[in-house]
Amino acid sequence: MKKEKLFYRILLLLGVVFLFTYCDANFIEEYDNHPPDAPKNVEAFVGDGLVELQWNDNSERDVAGYNVYYSNSYWGEYELIGNTENNYYVDYDARNGDLYYYGVAAYDYDGNEGELSYDKVYGVARPEGLNQAIFDYLKFPDNAGYDFDKYFVVPFDVNTDDESADFFFENSEGTYYLNVWDDTDIQDMGFTDSFLDVTYAPIDGWVPIVEGENVKYTEVKVGHTYVVWTWNNHYAKVRVNGISNERIIFDWAYQLLEGEPMLKTNRNTGKRNSLPKTVIKK
After folding, report:
1. DSSP notation for 136-163
2. In terms of C-beta density within 10 A (0-12 exposed, 13-18 middle, 19 or more buried), how is residue 44 classed?
3. pLDDT tens profile 196-207
């Protein structure tokens, strides 16, 4: 009888050992310790006080979301600013005129985080304004110019340390013009559905100066977007929404970072970020 009990105890012990060994083996097989690949084709689009990021969805089926990082230099240390389950993220804390580099890393349901994206991606948020009006300088000289640095209407010929007209409006016997002074450049980018359609300032193609004149000018048309390269090396864009004999109405965007041609926002219509940012930029 004792031998029989001992036999059953040995069988029970062997069964327990087998059960735990089998479960551990299954757990090891099912646990994934391989991180997802780095996201590809990361792009940045800038707006007023924001930078929008988008990238290709990862192909791995177990990807749970994406962590988004930023740095003040490409080779600097990157800090986590938030995460999302989507393939886009909006940095609502970007300061106008400040340059930020971004990286995106995918993570899976087992908590494995992959490498940062390899794309060199940066964004410089910039201010913008809608439905601004200036007037014909021949009739209303004190309200004919616009100063991008001040976001303010100024006299067309003002030129002080505090104010200067980056461009001004003219009605020349029924033909309408946007004018800039000889130390500034302007270019008609053609008809656009929105001033957001112009992504970057052009490299060349600026309106030439006519010999003997101190003003450059181009005919202004409703629906056209114009890029201005200011005397102090900043880029701006203006889309004309309406023209009358006495004034024009326009939307504008102005890049605060000197020499930076990035002007566009993507205006992503999807959901906001799934989680708030964890870093406040200083």
Report:
1. BTTT-GGGSEEETTTTEEE-TT-BSSS-
2. buried
3. 889 889 999 999
